[in-house]
Design goal:
Elements (H helix, E strand, L loop, with lengths): L21 H18 L1 H12 L9 E6 L5 H12 L4 E7 L2 H11 L4 E5 L12 E7 L10 H11 E10 L3 H10 L6 H13 L3 H10 L5 E5 L3 E7 L14
Parallel strand pairs: 1-2, 1-4, 2-3, 4-5
Antiparallel strand pairs: 5-7, 6-7
Helix pairs in contact: 1-4, 2-3, 6-7
Length: 246
């Protein structure tokens, strides 16, 4: 029977193991940052954050948490956007790996971005205590049993909304990743790039995950072999997004 997408695999990526060679890890995170730029993932998230904060007073701080932040290329993009718009953002970036956070700390070069270490499935935040939660290129690191739990946890701590951006599994994306693996990339990226595509979900599978998580989220295909999950919290009676009290 002809498949519209390759069969999904659950083989672990090398980056999900313990990697103490920080230079090797740094090269991989740089490759991922380039992929995010090429695929338009960071631009899409920044646009969504900008839309959510359109009616937000520029001088009032909004908190944005990026979960599974890797080398922090997304939060740095958000930081640059906030400076251009003269907006106040409190940026938080988290990851479960000590080694990833150690590399990220060096990449930030003293930027005012707070790094946190925690399990994405059990985040140390109260319900709706963060304004916006983002998660980019990480959903495929969670299997079909834990992915709904991740989505619920992201939604639990977000007050305005959640945007999840990830690879979309397809034959074209897989062979594109195979081709890029022959280029000047790190050994980690050469192994994990094509595997990431095979671990990723199709839009139909993601809709099933969202349904299992019991979330009123939108799932859409996006350019660059991506898919997006968006959850927006309800507005108040005036039609504007609820602002933080105090």
């Amino acid at each position: 029977m002809f498949r519209l997408a390759p069969a999904q695999v659950t083989t672990a990526e090398l980056v999900d193991g313990k990697i103490t060679d920080h230079e090797l890890l740094r090269a991989n995170l740089h490759d991922m940052a380039r992929a995010n730029r090429w695929l338009g993932a960071n631009r899409a998230v920044v646009r969504r954050v900008a839309n959510w904060l359109e009616d937000w007073p520029p001088e009032q701080s909004a908190t944005v948490l990026d979960v599974a932040a890797g080398g922090c290329d997304l939060v740095l993009s958000l930081r640059r956007w906030s400076l251009r718009q003269d907006r106040v953002l409190a940026l938080l970036a988290s990851d479960v790996s000590r080694d990833v956070l150690a590399v990220a700390q060096q990449e930030l070069c003293g930027q005012s971005i707070q790094l946190l270490r925690h399990d994405a499935l059990a985040m140390p935040f109260a319900d709706r205590s963060v304004d916006i939660v983002t998660c980019t290129q990480a959903l495929h690191h969670f299997d079909a049993h834990t992915a709904p739990q991740l989505l619920r946890e992201l939604a639990r701590v977000a007050r305005i909304g959640v945007i999840v951006n990830d690879l979309r599994r397809s034959y074209l994306a897989y062979w594109g990743a195979r081709l890029l693996a022959y280029g000047p990339v790190s050994p980690l990226s050469r192994h994990d790039g094509p595997l990431s595509v095979l671990r990723a979900y199709t839009p139909v599978e993601v809709r099933a995950l969202v349904k299992q998580a019991a979330l009123p989220a939108k799932v859409r295909r996006a350019l660059g072999f991506r898919l997006e999950i968006e959850l927006t919290r309800p507005t108040d009676d005036s039609g504007r997004m609820r602002k933080r009290r105090g």
